Amino acid sequence: MIETRALNVEAVRADFPILGRRINGKPLVYLDSAATSQKPAAVIDAMDDYYRRYNANPHRGVYAISEEATAAYEGARQRVARFINAGSPKEVIFTRNTTEAINLVRYSWGRANIGAGDGILLTEMEHHSNLVPWQLLASEVSARLEFLCIDDDGLLQLDGLERKLDGVRLLAITHQSNTLGTINPIRAIAEAAHRAGALVLVDGAQAVPHMPVDVQELGVDFYAFSGHKMCGPTGIGVLWARRALLEAMPPFLGGGDMIKRVKLTEASWNDLPWKFEAGTPSVAEGIGLGAAVDYLAQFGMDAVRAHERTLVGYAMEKLQDVPGITLYGPRDPEVHGGAVSFTLPNIHPHDLATLVDREGIAVRAGHHCTQPLMDRLGVAATTRASFYVYNRTDEVDQLVDGIQKAQKVFA
Ligand code: C6P
After folding, report:
1. Rg of the Cα trace of the chain?
2. Which residue minimizes the CA distance to atom 19 of ligand 1?
3. 41, 17 in Cβ contact below 8 A?
4. pLDDT tens across 320-341, in order?
5. Which CATH homologous superfamily contains domain 9-30+300-409?
6. CATH architecture for segment(s) 44-298
7. Domain ranges for the chain
8. pLDDT band at 411 (very low <50, low <70, confident <90, very high)
9. Which atom of ligand 1 is nearest to the CA of 101?
C-alpha cells in the first residue's frame, strides 16, 4: 500500500539531490524534463540497494539473492502494471525505452500483419521514434504511410479521420507531443480506428510521466513509454499490449530467457512477458522504475497533471509578453501538457539555450527529434521549456528574465 502525500513542491524538491546543485554560480533551474526527468533519492537508493545487497541474475538462480532479485524485478513489473491499469503484469514487456518498444511492435506484429498496399496512419507531430520505424517497415513490405495534419494551434485535424483510416492496419500516434505539448484525444481516435479495422499504437513517452494513463480505458492496443522521463533510470522502458495480441505475436529478439525448450534446430517460446525479453534484463533499472512508480503514485497522477497545468498556463501567459516571441502549441492548458516551445526573432534557439545556461537554466534547443514537425512550423529549431513535479512558477520567471537578458545581448 502506497501512502499518499500532497504535491508540495518544496518538499518534492528536497527529494531530488541534483536540485541542490549550482550551475555557473546559480541554483540549477531544470526545465528539460521532457528530455529526461531528474531522479528522486528513493529511486537512486533502490538501485544502489540492489547492487549492494542482492545483485544477482534473476529468473535463473535458486539461491537466496537471485530469488530476491527476481522478486524485486517482477514486483516492479506488477507496480508498473497497476500504474497504467494493465489487465495483467503479463501484458507489461520491459524494453530499453520507448524507441525499442515501438520497434518491437514493428518487427513482431508489424511484419506479420502489414503487407503491400496496407496503410499505416501517423501524425505530423510524431517523434522520430514513432516515425522512422514505420518508414522502415513501409519500405520493407511496400505499405503506404498516411498522415494526420495539425492546425495552427498544434491540434490534430480530425475531420478527415474516417477517410484517412480507409485501408489502414495501424494507427501510430503520440499521446502528448514532446515539442508542442499537445495532448491528443486518444480514446476517441482509437474508437474511430477500431471501427475502421485498424489497431492503435500509442507513444506515451510524454504522457505516462505527466498524467493518469489507463490503457484499458483508452481502448488502445499497444502503449509504449520510457522509465527515464518519469523519475526512473535510463535503460528501461515498457511496451504494454493486449494479452491476446502478445500471445499471437512472434518473438522479437532471440536468446536466453525468452525460450521454453531449445533443440539444435528449433525452439519453443517462454510464457508472457518473458517471451519478449531475451537475455539478462536491466535488473537495477527495472527496480528503479518500480521505485519511480511508487514515488509518483504517492501524489496521484491527477495532482501531477494539475501542477503542470498550472505551470504551463503560467508559462504561456508570461512568455507571450516577451517582445517578438512566437509560441507554438495549444493555447488551452487543458490540452497542453508540460512542454512549451517558442522562437525569438534574431536569436537562434541554440544561442538562447547557451545564454540562459549562464543563469543556471537548462532548456532544450533544436528540432527535438521532430524534424517533419519543424518543417510544418516553418522553423529549423525551437527552444523548449518543459516542467515536472519539482518545478515552481518562479523558475518560469527566471526563464523570462534570462530570455530578456539574452535579447539585450542580441539587440
Ligand atoms: N523525447 C525529448 O527531448 P526514448 O529515447 O526511447 O526514451 O524516447 C523517445 C521518445 C519517443 N516519443 C516521444 C514523444 C518522446 O518525447 C521521446 C523522447 C526526448 O523530447 C528526447 S529526443
Report:
1. 22
2. 35
3. yes
4. 999 999 999 999 999 999 999 9
5. Aspartate Aminotransferase, domain 1 (3.90.1150.10)
6. 3-Layer(aba) Sandwich (3.40)
7. 9-30+300-409, 44-298
8. confident
9. 6
